[in-house]
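Sharing in case it's useful to others searching the archive later.

Someone asked me privately for the predicted structure of Flavodoxin family protein, so I'm posting the question and my answer publicly. Question first, with the sequence:
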Amino acid sequence: MRVLVVYESMYGNTRHVAEAIARGAESGATVRVVAASDAHEVNPSEYDLLVVGGPTHIHGMSRESTRRGAVEAAQQPDSGLKVEPDAESEGVREWLAFLESSGGRAAAFDTRLDASPLLTGRASKTIARKLRHLGFSAAAEPESFLVDKETNLEAGEEERAERWGRSLVTSEEGVP
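And my answer, the predicted structure tokens:
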């Protein structure tokens, strides 16, 4: 089995989750992890499973203005935030808009604040919907990995991401 993990990350958390998902999936697959800003060079149809994730910004997927806001937040005195090198590049939203209709299995994930999804939103739900519209069948329900108010991954989230990645390659029946 071949798995492609495409992610977008502002402060590194979503990248860490993507890498953890890949570690878990490597138990039963060959895995490639690619930032959304570099994903235009990859053909998802060459993979058996596509896993796509990004941070939740203002109840959904990031956009140019929210990515710019994340960078500006990191530039504030005493912010303690460090942005990823490609944080202001095109993200998952733009990459998905670029993709042509395809097929196969896919799963979506996000990182979001550890609070009720009614308050935070979930980028993974929008990612999953866009993947369905592109002809992918769901390999799993959309998944969220949680960060605290200082934007650090909550304890145990990387391990949970590894388990989720492992489950994606051991379950082939998909989700209705």
